[in-house]
Amino acid sequence: MRKLLLTATIFYALFLLAPNYRHYPAEGLNDYLLITGHGLLSSLGLFAFLFILILNKYAWSLLLPLLSMAAGVTAFFVWQIDISVNPALIESIFNTHAGEALDYLSWPLALIALLHLLVALGFSYWRWHTNWRGRDNLYFLAAAVMAATVFNIVNNKRVNTLSSRAPFVYYSAIKEQLQNKADSRLPRKAPGQLLHCGEDSLTVVLIIGEALRADHLQMNGYDRVTMPLMEARDVISFPNIYSPHTHTAASLPYMLTRAQPKLSDPMQDEHSLVQLFQECGFRTTWLANQNPISTFSFIINECDSSIINKPHLSDYSNTPKYDSDLLPHFKRLNAEGHANQLIIVHIAGNHWWYNKNLPPDFHYYQPVMENKRLSPANRQKMINSYDNVTRFTDYVIDQMLQQLDEKNAWMIFLADHGQSFGEDGKWLHANDAPQEQNPASFAWFSDKYIKSHSEKVAQLTKNRLDTTDTAFLFHTLLQGSGIKTDRYEEQWDLFVP
């Protein structure tokens, strides 16, 4: 029996786990050793799972062929295009037209599925003709417990670093998808009673940035030019915005609902500002280069339409997923002719891993990162890649604004949080460090908007250096769009003195 368990573990480690690392960036022996170590740790979880399954020959014979085929098909697409199993992918599968699905079928895929089925049937036959010896039970039970323990310790220390990959991710992805569906049906209260709608022809664009620090924009004093096109457009930059949350899951519902310091309930039990825009006759769209997660999926569901770019790719994948992919969709939305329109654009921006968000043409500052090591030795390369992504973000936003130049329109950009580059030993985000709590934000207005709202724009310019919380977005966005409610709070509105 032990030969069967070890053989199955080795086979599935090679054919199911190994494809996860094909697209992983590596530079030199150290990186390959890290990748190998990560693969071996993943194999421990696989060994523990197979041990549980093999204890019952009926469960082994019934479940293994099904799981083997499903995981084999997944591994095929992971190897080919670096897909990730996530709620967005599951949602897109259920909404994919049958004709479109046929485009993904191929002889290599069929052969892979057949191979995994035949191997699983062979393992099932082997299991029915093999019995456990008492001593094997004890030894392998101890080994499985140790393997599961190590797997979980590592996975918890670096959140989901192992379980976020196939085949372990099936359970969590399906669970989250079902939770998203359940959350979308939960009753939520209105964010306020509508008192006034003041616009009959306005396009409003909210761009939600990712991990962009305010102090990495030259408009705020940075010594590098990272947004030349925005500076040329005379955007109004707000360098003193404070974010109480330094991870996307909390920062987005905080920004887009009536939540504020000491008032977090609206994140859980109220609709977002999208509902108020809809009540004023705005066509609302969520256009994203990041996959939705459970904490803000209800906001996406509130929109009249949503477009998620390449949902089969995880936000942490290593395959390019450029924000410029959103431009054709943005152009089409603006050509649809809606009198009032709200477009919420959720870009990948400065999301880690930076290089996957960065076309080679934008390697402005060099050298760029070539691996994922977070270390002082790699820090300058990390900053170079980060600043290059910011320049690409500058380009993408400018392309969008070109579609709005002749319209009555305005745009506000607000990043969800900042980023750490090793300050006080902190890296990336979710550390609640000061540099992570100061996200970049700026606003732009078309000539038509300025002509009819000159006093508003002038006052916003005067307030640009105010220190405020990201809670400002809810009330400022509504005020700038001519929407008033009975829960309006002037202290969060940058358009007033």
Fold and architecture overview:
- The chain has 497 residues and is an alpha/beta fold.
- It has two domains: 2-183, no CATH class; 195-492, Alkaline Phosphatase, subunit A (3-Layer(aba) Sandwich).
- The protein is built from 18 helices and 13 strands.
- A seven-stranded mixed beta sheet has the order 3-11-8-2-7-5-6, sandwiched between helices.
- The longest helix is centred in the first third of the chain and has 26 residues, at 29-54.
- The mean pLDDT is 91.
Summarize this entry quickly:
It contains 18 helices and 13 strands. It is α/β, with parallel strands linked by helices and 497 residues long. The chain has a seven-stranded mixed sheet, sandwiched between helices. It has a two-stranded antiparallel sheet with strand order 1-13. Strands 4-12 form a two-stranded parallel ribbon.
**The CATH fourth-level homologous superfamily of the largest domain:** Alkaline Phosphatase, subunit A
Going across the biggest sheet, name each strand in turn. Answer: 3-11-8-2-7-5-6
Shape: elongated
What is the CATH T-level topology of the largest domain? Alkaline Phosphatase, subunit A
In terms of DSSP E residues, the strand content is: 5-15%
Q: So how many helices?
A: 18
- Overall pLDDT: 91
Distance between the termini: 77 Å
Q: State the helicity in percent bands.
A: 40-55%
**Overall strand count:** 13
- How would you describe the oligomerization state of the chains in this entry? single chain
